[in-house]
Amino acid sequence: GGLVDLAHVNSVRDIFALNAADIGDARSKADAVEEEEEERELISDAFRSTALVSSREQYEAMYRRSVEDPDGFWADIASSFYWKTKWETKDGKIHSENIDVRKGRVAIEWFKGGQTNICYNALDRHVKAGLGDKIAFFWEGNDPGLDDKLTYTQLLERVCQLANYLRDQGVKKGDAVAIYMPMLVELPIAMLACARIGAVHSVVFGGFSAEALSQRILDCRPNIVLTTSGVRRGAKVIKLKEIVDEALECVLREGFAVGTCLTYANDSAIQREDTPWQKGRDIWWQDVVPKYPKDCAVEWMDAEDTLFLLYTSGSTGKPKGVLHTTGGYMVYTATTFKYAFDYHDNDIYWCTADCGWITGHSYLTYGPLLNGASVVVFEGVPNYPDAGRCWEIVDKYKVSIFYTAPTAIRSLMRSGDEPVKQHSRKSLRVLGSVGEPINPSAWRWYYDVVGDGHCPISDTWWQTETGGFMITPLPGGWPLKPGSATLPFFGVQPAIVDENGHEISGKCSGYLCIKAAWPGMMRTLQGDHARYETTYFAPFKGFYFSGDGCRRDGDGYYWLTGRVDDVINVSGHRIGTAEVESALVSHPQCAEAAVVGFDHEIKGQGIYAFITLLEGVEYSQQLRASLINAVRIQIGAFAAPDKIHWAPGLPKTRSGKIMRRILRKIAANQLDELGDISTLADPSVVAQLIDLRDV
Ligand code: WTA
């Protein structure tokens, strides 16, 4: 591969369609939190006495080595895993990287030549070490009273049976397997079974629509899809198999046929006879998988062989298949899990994320199991049947590490302190937050009320693309500040960069980039290395660009301020504005759509859609509902716009570009901050838009 064609990519503005005003916005947002900065939360001596990292000095020493000698640092850690064959070392180096597009193809390798298997390291290794009887998964059903548990030995057996079945179906190393399942233990079992035989899993979140699922299937072309008849989430029943059937019909129309649809019968949600069925293609999991042997030979994988694909939204175009490989991801997720949660062998860990997102991959499945942890897997939602459910579960399993998203915290906070205080929560030791910036008031409530003022909060900043934590507290290591992810993890070298691509130092704010590769970093985008380079490495040459804005304070702490591109973060779910727009304009009566985010009290951000209609079509509440429905059908209910704003015209420059800055201000109701509108082709559309706000 040669150089990326950079002729058309001169600056970040070209890619993200940013303009000076938007950059100013990101800056002022960053400065607004400045006042909070002096508030500190010290970690108690009692906590520090057992912490893995108990001072900033200890961290600084480890961190220094991790950036001065990354190869030595990571080789030492990697040695505690099982490698069938050790990695190659060239001039003392175990990794190679080029992240600078000016120097040629972007390429990253860690532990190349080393042969291992992540499933073996997550399960067999612990069983062989005598931990077979330890609980791997506590499963808690949607409805209180329905639960189950699996020891490491039992989990290994279940994984082997499915792995044997998949092999028997002809699934080989490198083949893709699509997984569309709810939070039953069978979902992580499916991921681990794929990993065991070298198949590439592609988990699609169960909230995505048939159409979105079919897109992902068409991109990775699996011969087998694993699913479930249905699931109960809160009071709702979701018939997943029906959605899969619709998706498979879609892909068939595109000329691609999936051979087998292995379906787990979830009788607590829907009866088998009520599940749509296509003879020959569909098979009940329970009818075949338990017949297979409980041991299964491992496929030894090169460290750089693909482990999984996970689709995520970007600022433009279709979702991208982020590709992670085996060795670096394994070492990185395990190490970040251990340090960021101060994991000890007797901890009980609960992560509320769904395996359909990266958090469920790295910190519900691989990271904790690689550490031999006992993990709670919860099928339901945090506020069902009532707002005390989470704390009931914490008490039931004596959860000591609890990891969730700010959106859940804010929604529970709204129900007040009482549902929390009705439960003891005395097992809790460490709390975690992920997915979006946590506002200081939610942080405070989480710390004071949920954690009774004695549990450090790990506010972990990272991304699907980074594989694991990038900026995060190490509990016990240093004082916390509400709303700050604090300091970089070992081996992570953040750079705050200005709009001209120059790194700025000290106390400052700008674009968050990373200066060098780390083991857990994605290696490419499925089938589109050029897009990988233009999206992440071309905007700021010599750096990996995160898409986030960030501020660094005088203590070197990092404060994430949200996306600076056209990605919206709704309840911690990443949604591309372009995807929502494309769903809206697919509606036969919609002419144009422009989607922006706006601050939302619970969800963090909400989706605000501006639309124009075809000539002669009149806007109505019915049309509004059917526009929203178009998004539900193409993406999923979680991406449904909160607000549809109809207008006869949208603000455009003379060259026809929609001015999103103005739309963002209107969505935020900051009408006195519209700025200069004189460059618009037709400035009168702005007044018209404002008039039509509440139609
Ligand atoms: C946002 C989720 C602030 C950020 C793991 C990032 C955060 C995007 C945090 C990635 C945090 C995630 N503080 N913002 N602690 N964690 N984000 O790929 O904008 O679903 O770029 O990965 O979520 O979302 P993704």
TrEMBL record:
<protein>
    <recommendedName>
        <fullName>acetate--CoA ligase</fullName>
        <ecNumber>6.2.1.1</ecNumber>
    </recommendedName>
</protein>
<comment type="similarity">
    <text>Belongs to the ATP-dependent AMP-binding enzyme family.</text>
</comment>
<dbReference type="InterPro" id="IPR042099">
    <property type="entry name" value="ANL_N_sf"/>
</dbReference>
<dbReference type="Pfam" id="PF00501">
    <property type="entry name" value="AMP-binding"/>
</dbReference>
<dbReference type="InterPro" id="IPR011904">
    <property type="entry name" value="Ac_CoA_lig"/>
</dbReference>
<dbReference type="Pfam" id="PF16177">
    <property type="entry name" value="ACAS_N"/>
</dbReference>
<dbReference type="InterPro" id="IPR020845">
    <property type="entry name" value="AMP-binding_CS"/>
</dbReference>
<dbReference type="InterPro" id="IPR045851">
    <property type="entry name" value="AMP-bd_C_sf"/>
</dbReference>
<feature type="domain" description="AMP-binding enzyme C-terminal">
    <location>
        <begin position="579"/>
        <end position="657"/>
    </location>
</feature>
<dbReference type="InterPro" id="IPR025110">
    <property type="entry name" value="AMP-bd_C"/>
</dbReference>
<dbReference type="InterPro" id="IPR000873">
    <property type="entry name" value="AMP-dep_synth/lig_dom"/>
</dbReference>
<feature type="domain" description="Acetyl-coenzyme A synthetase N-terminal">
    <location>
        <begin position="59"/>
        <end position="122"/>
    </location>
</feature>
<feature type="domain" description="AMP-dependent synthetase/ligase">
    <location>
        <begin position="130"/>
        <end position="523"/>
    </location>
</feature>
<keyword id="KW-0547">Nucleotide-binding</keyword>
<dbReference type="Pfam" id="PF13193">
    <property type="entry name" value="AMP-binding_C"/>
</dbReference>
<keyword id="KW-0436">Ligase</keyword>
<keyword id="KW-0067">ATP-binding</keyword>
<dbReference type="InterPro" id="IPR032387">
    <property type="entry name" value="ACAS_N"/>
</dbReference>
